[in-house]
Amino acid sequence: MQLANGFPPSPSGHAAEPADRSADHPDADPRQLVLGHTLSIMTADTFEVLVGRTLAAAREVTGAAVAAALDPDGGLRAYGDPELRERLAGTTPTVRGRLRKRPGGATAALATVGLPAAITAAFGDVVLVVADPTPSRLGPEAGSLLALLVAHAQACRDRLHELAMLQRRANSDPLTGLRHHRPLDERLAATAPDQTAVMAIDVDGFKKINDEYGHQAGDQALLTLASALRSVLRGDDELYRIGGDEFAVVVDVNGPAEAAAIAQRLVDAARGVGQTISVGAALHTSGETGHETLCRADGALYEAKRAGRDTARLAA
Description:
Number of helices: 12
Order of helices and strands: HHHHEEHHEEEHHEHHEEHEHE
Shape: elongated
Strand content: 15-25%
Structural class: alpha+beta
Oligomer: single chain
Radius of gyration: 29 Å
Helix content: 40-55%
Strand order of the largest sheet: 2-1-5-4-3
Number of strands: 10
């Protein structure tokens, strides 16, 4: 059962009151309450967890009844209080636009849905909304406390962003941005018999480019080639750089004919940017590891080299 204000009753049957910060912590400095949540906020390991913890902290330190988050397009994140998400979903696009347009203070935009007291704060690309059915519940101090919480959360968000960037760098080739050995190993471990094709690619005559035109020209040739190869792969296909002029591709296919067709597309893409490559492809079979499939693809690659380069071969 819900009462008129929309909030669930307490176990005694009376309307549940929003958390009263002064009652729970009568002698606490409000800013100390914020600091009490800092460890929880700063140890969040994903942005979603971070927002959820920040919203929970915001409710306690401001004494508000509910808190949720608005996406930039007005959608609602799947965290925060369901009650507030439901009420926000019931507002007009104009109301949600007001909340997103000028985050960072008190707003009366939610009065029409029974939440006359509301404050907002921008956090990354979302807007945090803290609200209460009691008009005088959220004063200037509540806005300052929310801003302080968001400052701590922003520091954690910056740390998560830096960690993600470091992880990308650790798993990616610095020249082309393609992933390399470790991500390839993980993908090879997930190959499925008769459904995954592995391809080994070698740039024909790459040493000559470096010798005649210099390493800068060689780097540019690799960048151009990597872009061309990616352009003919599908969204779930993976292209890796595993050596100076060596690449690998792992794709899901319906059989050897599709694997051969994709390998030929790669050869054609390289020709289109003035390069030639040799490609060896192998369909993963039952009883072999992904690395063994890659070794068979590498063998097919050398068959392509012996056949005159600028071609593709499918391993038996």
